[in-house]
Amino acid sequence: MSIFRRGSKATSDDDLVADGAEGAGEAEVGGVDQVAPTAAGQQDDGYEAAPDDRASAAGETHADEPTDDVDSSRGPFDAADVEAAGDGRLDLGALRIRGLPGMELRLEVDEEAQQVVGATAVLGESAVQLQAFAAPRTAGIWDGIRSEIAESIVAQGGTADEAHGPLGSELRTRMPSAGPDGRTVYAPARFAGVDGPRWFLRAVFSGRAAIDDEAAQPLVEVVRDTVVVRGDAAMAPREMLLLQLPQQAEADEPQDGPAAPAADDLKPFQRGPEITEVR
Question: What are phi and psi of 71, to 5 degrees?
Answer without folding.
Answer: -80, 100
